[in-house]
User: Fold this.
Amino acid sequence: MNPPDDAKWTWPPTFVWGVSMSAFQIEGATREDGRGPSVWDTYGASGRVANHDTGDVACDHYHRYPEDIALMRGLGVRAYRFSVAWSRVLPQGRGAANEAGLAFYDRLVDALLEAGIEPWLCLYHFDLPQALDDLGGWAVRDSAGWFADYATLVGRRYGDRVKRFATINEPSIFTLFGYALGGAAPDAADVSTLRRAIHNVNLAHGAAVDALRVLVPQASIGAIHNVQPCLPATPADTDAADLLGAYWNAAFPDPQCLGHYPSRLVEVMEPYVQAGDLARICRPLDWFGLNHYSPIYATANPNSPLGVTLGAGPSDISRTPIDWPTAPEALRETLHQVHNRYRLPIYVTENGLGSYDTPDAIGKITDTQRIEFLSAYIEAVRRAIAEGVDVRGYFVWSLLDNFEWASGYAVRFGLVHVDYPTQKRTPKASYFWYADLIKAATEASRVIPLARSGSGGLDLLR
Ligand code: FCB
Assistant:
């Protein structure tokens, strides 16, 4: 493919620059104002997170959201993707709503709109209400109805102000790790539970899309998937990589966008699929949210529930400080694949670098590696757009350092450093770099409007 003509190229004026975060990772206040526990409260309380960390305080965003929105304003982002904590608004997951919890997201949404930042509301980011897990959670078919009722509550409450909705963040990640590979709530290890959960989460997605369409007719609705190349750790692991790739990259987007399970999984999913289900799952979507960090490596492991586990991969490749392989070309290729397969506008809804940043003697955080990573990945996005892929936005994970699931607070993904004991926020070098990039990209696209039709027939001004 030809490289973009750099001299003439500018970012489309409508391109959405943003940041992403999620409720459990930042809010804290887990026992405040009537919030009910989620599976991640339970997982944290059991001491399974690194350093015995929990989400109890996290970034205290529940109280400090005005300061965090001011940081977003300083960055110049046009959009903020956040998630609603299901158990904050429905402490039991269903039944009586919690007015104090609902009011928190009113305040958040209103403050975002006042700051000129568009709220992108994701209904679910890993934090199933514990009360629902106690009833069987995603492994029972009723979960689709619970989720649709929750979506109805959220759409009805915020749909007057929020127009961008995502259903479920990375369904393949929380089902694979939560029900088979280990290392995430609810920490089951059983393949039939995994498959049941996959199908019910897919049904929940479809039901939520339907509910939102009725309640918020102008809504732009998407689904968010983690799509990353799944490679064999050794030549003997080719079949294992193919299997893991089917679960990781296709078990959700294929039924949601194409109306069928990937061929590798059709037979094993069949016992759970009832007449009409695939039509219930495959509801028209407005966009595809792509989360992407790095290629993954698979190792055949007959002793594991799935017969495959994550492998280390080659030692001679470039990696981030937390050991994730760095491969911006893989993002470009993934963008092409997602575009060709699903034919939806794409937003990169997560991308970023995890590290162990610490302030220097004068309190500065010079996270050069994050800047290099982000600039290489954003360049991959730019090239994909110039080659005809319909990418309409890019969101950095994350604005703040936050609770990185089983890794706790040790791993930091933020553009802004959080000193957890004091909750002091300190923008890192990458924060200023991203602010400059957004400014340059938006100013340039204002000056030279670009009318371009890419090879895929894409009109970037559309
Ligand atoms: C993604 C999750 C997000 C964050 C990043 C690093 O899988 O969606 O919550 O943990 O990884």
